[in-house]
Write a structure and sequence with these properties.
single chain, alpha+beta, eight-stranded antiparallel sheet, three-stranded antiparallel sheet
Length: 236
């Protein structure tokens, strides 16, 4: 987004790092506080409920669970994965919520590659899929809000994947759901037959509630299904 009226700030604490973009400095401060506070609440909850951290399948949360854990568990249940698959997206969504409460008209939070955005202006994002020719060469113009975007990969990044996809990018109305779904679909994309693996991934994605669109890169092939934002050709 090219606008002199917008502010941007990077953040990093523990494993959480990313970028906040807004038309309001106060909103950026609210987002940073939200990210820190909700991560701390989640850590305290995990100390009391360690299964929430390690499970690879959905986990029910207690009634006294913090909101961040509740929305992670809800998204994970829809996607059929463990709740930590949705952590980056959940933190981003809650930060955007605080930005709106602070009066922001442009609220964009990128947290470890997962994006939550509500904006009066279009938002252009690039695809990061290291090791593939399309990485940083194509992107998407986000114009329909709210939107959540998440990418999962079995070939780069630190997140656990049980599949083999080079990249699975999911578009949803929130980043928490996109994050969980990207993990589920990436887990499903594997096998020597790339066409069959990609077809299985698309079927998995479109069977998950709230998934609007998907892009899969696997063994040199690219597939798109559902409703995705306008594709962009990005020049260096």
């Amino acid at each position: 987004m090219k606008s002199k009226s917008l502010f941007r700030e990077t953040f990093e604490f523990k494993e959480t790092r990313g970028l906040i973009l807004s038309d309001s400095r106060e909103a950026i401060a609210s987002a940073t506080a939200s990210l820190r506070e909700n991560r701390e609440k989640l850590e305290r909850y995990i100390r009391r409920n360690p299964k929430f951290l390690y499970s690879l399948t959905p986990v029910r949360v207690n009634s006294d669970a913090p909101l961040v854990a509740k929305i992670m568990a809800e998204a994970a249940a829809k996607a059929g994965v463990g709740p930590m698959a949705a952590v980056a997206g959940a933190l981003a969504d809650l930060a955007v919520r605080e930005m709106l409460s602070a009066g922001a008209k442009v609220a964009v939070v990128e947290n470890g590659g997962e994006i939550s955005a509500i904006s009066e202006l279009p938002v252009d994002i690039a695809l990061l899929a290291q090791g593939t020719p399309l990485s940083r060469k194509i992107g998407f113009r986000l114009e329909k809000f709210p939107v959540g975007v998440a990418t999962s990969s079995a070939t780069f990044g630190h997140a656990l994947s049980l599949g083999e996809a080079d990249a699975v990018t999911i578009f949803s109305k929130n980043a928490c759901m996109a994050d969980a779904a990207a993990t589920a679909v990436c887990n499903a994309v594997k096998g020597e037959n790339a066409d069959l693996a990609i077809r299985r991934g698309i079927e998995e994605a479109l069977s998950i509630d709230d998934v609007e669109g998907i892009l899969i890169i696997y063994k040199g092939k690219v597939a798109i299904a559902g409703e995705i934002p306008r594709l962009l050709n990005i020049t260096e």
